[in-house]
What does this fold into?
Amino acid sequence: MALTDKYINPLTDFGFKKLFGEEVNKELLIDFLNQLLPEKHKIKELTYQQNEHLASTEYDRKAIFDLYCENEKGEKFIVEIQRAKQNYFKDRSVYYASFPIQQQAIKGSEWDFKLAAVYTIGILDFIFEEDKKEKDYIHTVQLKNQKNKIFYDKLTFIYIELPKFDKNIDILESKIEKWLYVLRYLARLQDRPKALQEKVFNKLFAAAEIARYTKEERKLYEESLKYYRDLKNVVDTAFEEGEVKGKIERNYEVAKGMKVKGIDIALIAEITGLSENEIKKL
It folds into this structure.
C-alpha cells in the first residue's frame, strides 16, 4: 500500500498513540484534554500509566485502555478512540471506569474512601443511534439527582461524536473546535491551514508528518491504516445493510464480515456482543 497522504490519520491505532501516547508529545494530550475539562480539573502535568489492568478475579475480563494517565493531583484519565459501533458501548465505558476507582483503595491501613476524580474521554468515529437527530457532538455525563443537580462530580464521561463535527476551517470558533477539525481531517490536509498556526499545532503537524518517520514506523502505520480502513468498511457496510434486518441477524453479518477480514475474534465479540464461541462457528 503506497502512502500518498502527507499526515497520518489520528484515528488509527498507530496515529493516535504516536500523537498522544508518547512522552515527547505529551503537550498535545494535555492541551486537548484541557479544552474538555472544567477549570478545577485543568491539567498542568500528566504521567502515562500502564494501560492494561487485570480484574480482581480470574472470572473478570481484562481492561485495556488506549491511553491511561494521571495528573499532578492524582486524578485519572482514560482516553480512547472507538472506531465502530458496538453493543453495550456505554456499559463498557462504565466497567472500564471502575478500574481506576478500585485502584485508589488503600490496602493495609485505614482508608476514608476519599477518591480522586476519574474521567473517561471517548473519541467516537460513529454517532450514537439514540442521538443521531441531535446537533450536539460533545456529551458530558455525570451522576445527577431527580432535580437534575450533580450528585457526584468526580466521575465524568465525555463522549465526542466526531462524524457530527462538520465545520469548515474558516468558521472555527474555539480551541476545541480546532482540535476536532484536526482529529477528523488531518489525513486529508496537504498544507497547514492559517487557523492552525498556534504553537501546539506546530508540534502536532511536525509529529504527524509521515516523511519524518523511519522505514519501520511507516510500515507500522501502513498496517494500522489498513486495519482501520478494513474495520470501518466492514462494520459500516454491515450496519447499513442491517437497517432492514433484525438486530441479531445484523450482528451476525457484522461478525462474518470481520472474521473474513481476519480481525481478532475477541475484538469482534466486543463490537457485536456475540460470544467468541458463536463467532468461531460462523
Summary: The longest strand covers residues 150-161. Residues 13-212 form one domain. The radius of gyration is 20 Å.
